[in-house]
Amino acid sequence: MNSLDQTLDTAAEHHGPASGISRWLYTTNHKDIGTLYLWFSFIMFLLGGCMALSIRAELFQPGLQLMEPDFFNQMTTMHGLIMVFGAVMPAFVGLANWMVPLMIGAPDMALPRMNNWSFWILPFAFTMMVSTLFMEGGGPNFGWTFYAPLSTTYAPPSVTFFIFAVHMMGISSIMGAINVIATILNLRAPGMTMMKLPLFVWTWLITAFLLIAVMPVLAGVVTMMLMDIHFGTSFFNAAGGGDPVLFQHVFWFFGHPEVYIMILPAFGIVSQIIPTFARKKLFGYASMVYATASIAFLSFIVWAHHMFTVGMPLVGELFFMFTTMLIAVPTGVKVFNWVATMFRGSMTFETPMLFALAFVVLFTIGGFSGLMLAIAPADFQYHDTYFVVAHFHYVLVPGAVFSIVAAVYYWIPKWTGNMYNETMGRWHFWLSFIGVNITFFPMHFVGLAGMPRRIPDYALQFADFNAVASVGAFIFGFSQLLLLYNVIQCIRSKDKATTEVWESAEGLEWTVPSPAPYHTFAEPPLVK
Amino acid sequence: MSPKPNLWQMLCSVLAAFFGVQSSHNLQRDFSSGHALTYFLLGAAVLVGFVAFVIFLITLALSLAGA
Amino acid sequence: MNCIAKGMLGAGSLLPLAVAADWQVNLEPGVTEISQAVFDLHMTIFWICVAIGVVVFGVMLWSIIHHRKSRGAKAHNFHESTVVEITWTIIPFFILIAMAVPATATLIKMYDKNGADLDIQVTGYQWKWRYQYLGEDIDFFSSLSTPKEQIQNQAEKGEHYLLEVDNPLVIPAGKKVRFLMTANDVIHSWWVPALAVKKDAIPGFINEAWTVVPEPGIYRGQCAELCGKDHGFMPIVVDVRSEADYQLWLAEMKQAKVQAADAATKDWTLAELMEKGEEVYNRACAACHQANGEGIPGAFPALKNSPMVVAADPAAHIDIVLNGKAGTAMQAFRDQLNAVELAAVITYERNAWGNTSGDLVSPAQISELKQ
Q1: ipTM score here?
Q2: What is the rounded distance in angstroms from the CA atom of residue C84 to the CA atom of residue C63?
Q3: CB distance from A194 to chain B under 8 Å?
Q4: Tens of pLDDT, residues A140-180
Q5: C→B interface, C-beta within 8 Å
Q6: Domain of residue A394, residue span
Q7: Cβ separation of C297 and A243 shorter than 8 Å?
Q8: At which of C209, C225, C260 does a domain end?
Q9: Which residues lie below 8 Å from residue A74, measured CB to CB, with a gap of 6+?
Q10: Would you call A334 a catalytic residue per the annotation?
Q11: Residue C345 domain flag
């Protein structure tokens, strides 16, 4: 510890950031790498968003107008993969990079060189994945869940590139997770005990364990695909004695914890923001930590609720139905605690708080539809319809994405040293809020009315709500350009932020100057 | 600091983690004097027990329904 | 982006809102006892969610309105209460148990596959369904009958756009019909909302589902599992008939089969075969190989100028059409088409789009191979 401090001390005195492109290529600074992650994720968000808009444009009215069905399938697949692996996950890693060391009083991440590597893998992985769209036969067209044998025997040749891209993303995620765990467990400032950790740090710690547990499973399943495609094995090929359902079990054993990987850090962010703007300590801190642990545990024994229609035996259906319903309990604890934090507080409604409040309401709506989906007999009607699409977009867009946007507005004064423009922030919020609901709420209706997901064209009775959803999607999509504007405006702004930034924000990150210097906590702070 | 938690208290903490509700007093005790590995092992054991319990419930429900 | 924007403008002039006015927002109760039970479950859980939502969002809204700084609210300092927290954990827990009981009962009922009056094997193909009536010697394929022009917006869309097929599944009313689901290539999912039956059709597996439809009627559904390019274009139509009408239909089907066998024995001219072949081609082959025979590079090979198709000896060509090609999307059409259709479509492929083999594959030749 001592020698590390000294090294960093001398580094802080003699070296600022390097200049030019080499600063970004060779950097081992957690703030630089956090920034890289966040910009990368934003670019991916816009790219995945363009694909979403092309999907919504095609679905604006019945009939095929803009694209062939095969290209439509490539768009839905790429949209899902890019948003999950390219936008949401890297954004959370970026936030962890920036904020975890600042929140626990550490000088940097524990493994800075690995940190650099885990970021720089990503642009290559995604370049490779997106390049498949231009290959003969087109890109992956089997949905982001890539069920075999559609993704093996019947896949376009580019599937091999997709498999390697997934491997690279997985390596990046695992390294990022190891780094977060090593940092939180080893680099806490004196006095920063585990039970004083801010919730964002707690949720990330648990998320990192989930990542390490399940990313190898994903790597395993794509490797089995690779073997089936190129080396003559028959893991998923019934004709060779394999089992297509095995794919789904392995995939969802990864996939269900994966959805919590995308939502637990969001819980952490919201648990930071709401107390700040309610000017009141978070209600039930201990329960929040335990509920996160509980959700993480349960996430490993519910996976087959994604597969209620594959023909599991009755005992299996009941098991996964009961365990899935139980997840509502710890999730409910979280929502109740947020509301109790607001109750009898002294609230103000700056942009981060607006996004956090919208998160609580809209995520809860997504939770309700999740509870409905857990009821296996009813799931037979909901499964693979737009009701499911509405459900997971409610938990991922006004859920995970809103929490990331809230985090950006909340911490950007600390990153840039300047305040963002509050009026523009509100415009961004209200347009996003209205747009997101116009887009995704009608999807509940068409789903219940019987519209399957992943279809490029639909029967006439679904036309009206699809048109509405498409209009909403364009409002939501284009209003995200306001986020870009607000961030750039904030970087160039002359409106200096104070050290504390917010009136009653608590935590070590608000004790360093704004903008946070290139090297912080070279001397560990003392936490009382 | 608080005394080392006994097995029963640790089990209670693990069960609390399954339910998602815990008091900060107990949290303090767990993290200041407990050992992480014991909680992991206990957690895994309770998870197995929980799975077995759900399976038992299902068999019970099915036999009651005569299916 | 630009082209999307233009597309939006073009689409805007047609305003789908004006075309069809149907704002269905809820699940349909369906027509069977099971679908009614599922609908009741759905409504129960929905209202429970609404009630919880009203309470939670109500408290939240109250706080937002009354406990705001601009109204001079001062923050209180409570931040823990194990009793309150345990209470709001226990209550949802009991609500969940109350929900799990009827759900379990319904699920047990759905899994009771005993005592079926009729067994039908349902096989998913890319992108059509095959229905085999076990013990009845009835076996046919059911594919989308909506004309291409409607999908391409060159003709007005019909009432049952994308939900109509050439040969619907016909079942008798009031009888317990058991479906044995499987698939030939990738995973499909057979779904008819009005019957509350959705079951995956998986290659190498046989899944079971059943239904009893009390009243005759026509019920429509779609494939629910992404199964490739034309996943959105493989609907299901179930035509439920009274017992008498069902028997009549059985007799007609058997009659038609005899007639088709007779047709294979007569002599066909090249022109006749070409005409029939074009019709069959557009129905069974054009989805992949395209109407112009050029295929889709990288995915589906071209037939135009294909060495196999223009070769002097048609044996290889006939073999691939009859038996498919393992490990690719090329299906075996041996059972999907009758001898006349097979002969016609092969002849058509060998003489269309500038392919000039000039030869004729006769139905008799195919009949022999099919034995």
Answers
A1: 0.90
A2: 18
A3: yes
A4: 999 999 999 999 999 999 999 999 999 999 999 999 999 99
A5: 80, 82, 85-86, 89, 104-105, 108, 111-112
A6: 24-510
A7: no
A8: C260
A9: A133, A138, A139, A140, A141
A10: yes
A11: yes
